[in-house]
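Sequence in, structure out. First:
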Amino acid sequence: MPANNKDYVATYCIRGVRKLTPEVWAQYDAACNPDIITALSDTPFTSAPHSNKRTHKSLERSTAWLANLLHSVAARRREVGSDGEPLTGSLSNVLVHMAGGAVVQARKAFAEGLMEDLEEFKAVNPSPYRRLDDGVAGYVFDLVPLRAALSARSKAADEDLGDDADTLKPRGAINTLTPTSRADTSAVDPAALSEVLRASLQPLPTHKPRLVNSARSPHEMLRLVRDVGIDLFDAHWAQRAADIGVALDFAFPVALGGSAAGGRQSCGMPQDEAATTPTTLDWLTPSRLLAVRSPSPHQTAASAQPLISGCGELEGRSEPADNGGCSPYGDGYGCIAWLYLRALRMLSELAS
């Protein structure tokens, strides 16, 4: 993919790579009149880590392109139809990608820029908004480039640590700190991911929706709901599962506690362990999910309880399987945990 420029972003289309300018993007918006549109963002897709200069350019371009789209939307709303009414509604439909990569300070700077006063800017670009954020309906996070940036930063830190260790280790010692040659984005620390997302959201209002693209699993979704206050997720993970023939058929709510007559049965898990309430998401096993209950979607402190203490025969099945309802074979009704584990393994293989 070619690099972006100050005047355009490089995009894939049916005819290959095309240069898309903010002006053309605004024309598409005017022609299609969509319910939701996301402003163009200068997200670097070159190999991470990126220089401070490149990160600064990304922030400037993303801010300018958002202002361009908001100006276009506001101009259309000032138009008056034959009945004397505005042609479009007054509610904003513009989402913004939160820029800044894996740099916490850069992400904070971009978010704070959305909240700055635009009085001095109105002379050359009239706008009904006092701040850019006033015209923004919600915030979007793309996890694919963010994972790559976090992985590259972690790898660079490990290499620096490895170089220091080489100078201090005794003769003949083995340096175990040398990272692999290929960045493993699956090894990104969940805490680091949550930290950079919170850095973007901290200066912003809490009542606007927060959308995440390309979450890797239900576990990651639950972490982001609990730790960051994410409201919406795209269907990336479910689509990938469907691509390889795996359907997710979870039943909610599920009774907690041990199995009863005609109820769910434990699959390879001690009953005393199945009855234990977890305190962190790291406790998860393939046969369990978590219920994240919080009085507010943006409250970081949330209680976690297991939704599934085991798995067993599905409702309507005449006879249990020979191994206590946990067989993935037979009449086609398999153990939910087995299907879930199989989906995770297959998706991991595809991602590697």
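Second:
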Amino acid sequence: MLWKYSTLLPLVVFLVVGFEFVINRPCNDELGFGLLLFGSEEIERLKLRALEGYGEEIWGLSFCVVVDLGAGAASNMAGSGKHGSKNVGMHVCTVYGMALCAPENLPLKTLPFCDALHSLRSNLNDPNNVLQSWDPTLVNPCTWFHVTCNNDNSVIRVDLGNAALSGQLVPQLGQLKNLQYLELYSNNISGPIPGDLGNLTNLVSLDLYLNSFTGPIPDTLGKLSKLRFLDLSNNHLSGVVPDNGSFSLFTPISFANNLALCGPVTGHPCPGSPPFSPPPPFVPSPPVSTPGGISATGAIAGGVAAGAALLFAVPALAFAWWRRRKPQEFFFDVPAEEDPEVHLGQLKRFSLRELQVATDSFSNKNILGRGGFGKVYKGRLADGSLVAVKRLKEERTPGGELQFQTEVEMISMAVHRNLLRLRGFCMTPTERLLVYPYMANGSVASCLRERPPSQPPLDWPTRKRIALGSARGLSYLHDHCDPKIIHRDVKAANILLDEEFEAVVGDFGLAKLMDYKDTHVTTAVRGTIGHIAPEYLSTGKSSEKTDVFGYGIMLLELITGQRAFDLARLANDDDVMLLDWVKGLLKVKKLEMLVDPDLQNKYVGAEVEQLIQVALLCTQGTPTERPKMSEVVRMLEGDGLAERWDEWQKVEVLRQEVELAPHPNSDWIVDSTENLHAVELSGPR
């Protein structure tokens, strides 16, 4: 048996002989070999350091061997530096009572991004234990809730919106060099916005909406060249809104309801600066008389009038002749008129001619899809960028231009990484068109059911990301838009996928907008069979809970790969409605038959159960029993699903007992969807 440990003999000799040397002499530039003694946690930390790019230099040794004594035996080498590494200051410290060499200026216990998140956690009050998973003993933050990492284990997203947090932010957040999304909206975080956030050079979205931040807006945020979404509204910020760098991209809505802010973008002049005023009105100069008694102004006016008449007469005659000869569909553009009451900020107003050229006169070969609102065409603008042009098919009514512009403005203000960004619009007396970025990967529906053989199916991790991303987008429409936007047609075909297969909710805002306090009653039900909530279908009343129902059906599409309404299921004596089909299979405990065969059993069963639970909670018959989209987001992130599911099961048991009891009236109308036995699905694991 001793031969098994013979490989440890040189280590023991070195340890005995060199222990006194290591204890009494700090590591220095001349030390060419260092023995580092670790427990298993320290080895994991070293591995993570290597992933972050520190493995070659932080130890300051030409070559480092890592030995795991915490497990009772020598392990394989977990990492090593390269010869020629630059030394740093070293000192002697101990781990598990053993001496080792460690960097003087970099604590052994954490990585920089761990330091930043640990500091944030310790600086925030968390009454609901949202940060419970942020365990300092777990080195890898990629396992924490509300933290997202990329494939290199770098933190790219921190989402703590609507979490009832208070306290202050910490400057260490500026160490998260790869962070792309920082979302802290709807909390009670106070104090200043750290200027160190200007070091987050990869930041795309900064959402601090509805907190209690005070002080000035750091001008260092102007250095964030990749920043595309900024919401500092509804805080207590003060001072001048900076106008440098990326600040030029943002409109007043990014800074609204900060009463002490001033500057041109807010419309409030700063103390000591001249008030904003419109340009002086044009005053014509007095006419200059000519020797013949006719003023020069009059002569010019007469010439202009005659020229204008000729200018308009010739094209009009030519157009009439052309139209008589070519009676097919045509487009006639008119000069865009500026509306002084509508300010569309950074939104571009395209001419119809631009979009005709981009889409090859709306050629059928460029049709990307058809929907309830019109056809969508692929186009290429003059700058080479690809766009999707939605040509609305609604009939035009006189005086509808201002309403259209107002609704376009509202849509353009809904900016979130999981919402399809409106790039521009076009409006003529006969046409209404919306211009969006082109989504290269199509829609969730096309990826599930219409993908070419060469395209791999959506894998399970991607489907989970789509579920969470689309939920976040809908939550933003409901909770962060004023007035809130009800989608009214949430389905897999309206969830688009960008280059990274991130979910982007499309077609929002095309239905009527509703105000915070009013229940919107529509003249016609908009939606798709199988996705329409029962109360919307029967009463025409839509609300946020209408979208929640549609989202639940979309989740089932993601899991099963099937259509929400499919007559082909009748061939197997199955239900045509996806929701009824799913409930039927769960009733006979055939969960495995629900999952899309394209996944080829490469999924986590517990996660499938959790998504089905969320879907069933979202598709309850009574709107008030469905969760809000913000609650759906939290459940998908692992917060509160178990409690909500247990509560639902208890209600279902009582409901089934009532339905099984004899009733004097046997002619009651029962919901077409079957009730699910409360024991069919286990709780979240």
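Remark: The CA atoms of residues 254 and 363 lie 39 Å apart.
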